[in-house]
Design goal:
The protein has 2 helices and 13 strands; from the N terminus they run βββββββαββββββα. By secondary structure, it is α+β, with helices and mostly antiparallel strands. The protein has one domain: Porin (Beta Barrel), CATH 2.40.160. The chain has a 13-stranded antiparallel sheet with strand order 7-6-5-4-3-2-1-13-12-11-10-9-8. The longest helix is centred in the last third of the chain and has 23 residues, at 152-174.
Length: 179
C-alpha cells in the first residue's frame, strides 16, 4: 500500500492511501521554543469514521525520549534501538515477534525497512518529495509491501521517529555539523 504524506515533516504529516485518498494516520506535534518537538501523537483512522490514539512520543534532548505504544510506556531505546553510530540503522521488534531494521544508507535520502531474517526483502520504503525540476513532481510517500501490512502500526510509529532523526542528521550534514 502506498501512503502519500501531506508534508515532508514527519512530525505533522497526514498519511493517506494513494489509491483512494482516505486518511489512515495523522501525526500531530506540540513544540517547545525554537521548534524543538515536545510531544507527538500518532492517530490511526483505519476504520472509517473512527480515530484512535495509536502512540505518543515525548521528545527529550537530555533524558531518554519516551514512547507510549501498545499499552506500554518505555524509553525509546527499549523499543527502537540504534545499530550504528556512523549511519542511521534502527532496529525494532514488531508485534509479530520478528526483528526489523530501518536503513537510511549513507546518503540519508531514503529509508528502507527490511526483516532481519530476510534482508533481501524490502518491507517498506520511503520516497522524498520531488519539486518536478528533474522528473515528475511528487509528494513524499511511504510504500508498504503486502508482507508489512500485518505490522502496519509498528511501521508507522517507528517510521515517524526514524524519519525525524534522518531529517535531523541530514540538516546537520547540510549545515556542516557532521559528515
Amino acid at each position: 500500500m502506498e501512503f502519500t504524506l501531506s508534508t515532508t515533516n514527519p512530525l505533522k504529516a497526514i498519511f493517506t492511501n494513494s489509491v483512494d485518498g482516505r486518511e489512515y494516520y495523522r501525526v500531530e506535534t506540540q513544540h517547545r521554543l525554537l521548534c524543538f518537538p515536545k510531544e507527538s501523537t500518532i492517530l490511526s483512522s483505519r476504520k472509517e469514521g473512527e480515530t484512535i490514539e495509536l502512540a505518543r512520543i515525548r521528545w527529550h534532548t537530555i533524558a531518554p525520549t519516551i514512547i507510549e505504544y501498545r499499552g506500554n510506556e518505555m524509553p525509546r531505546r527499549d523499543f527502537i534501538k540504534k545499530k550504528s553510530c556512523f549511519r542511521l540503522l534502527t532496529m525494532f521488534t514488531a508485534s509479530d515477534g520478528r526483528s526489523y531494521t530501518w536503513n537510511a544508507g549513507y546518503s540519508l535520502r531514503r529509508l528502507r525497512l527490511v526483516c532481519d531474517n530476510d534482508p533481501d526483502t524490502v518491507i517498506a520504503v520511503s520516497r522524498r518529495s520531488n519539486l518536478g525540476i528533474i522528473g515528475p513532481k511528487r509528494k513524499a510517500s511511504l510504500d508498504v509491501s503486502p508482507a508489512g501490512m500485518n505490522i502496519l502500526d509498528d511501521i508507522i510509529v517507528t517510521f515517524t521517529w526514524t524519519n525525524y532523526i534522518r531529517r535531523c542528521m541530514e540538516s546537520a550534514r547540510n549545515h556542516g555539523h557532521g559528515g
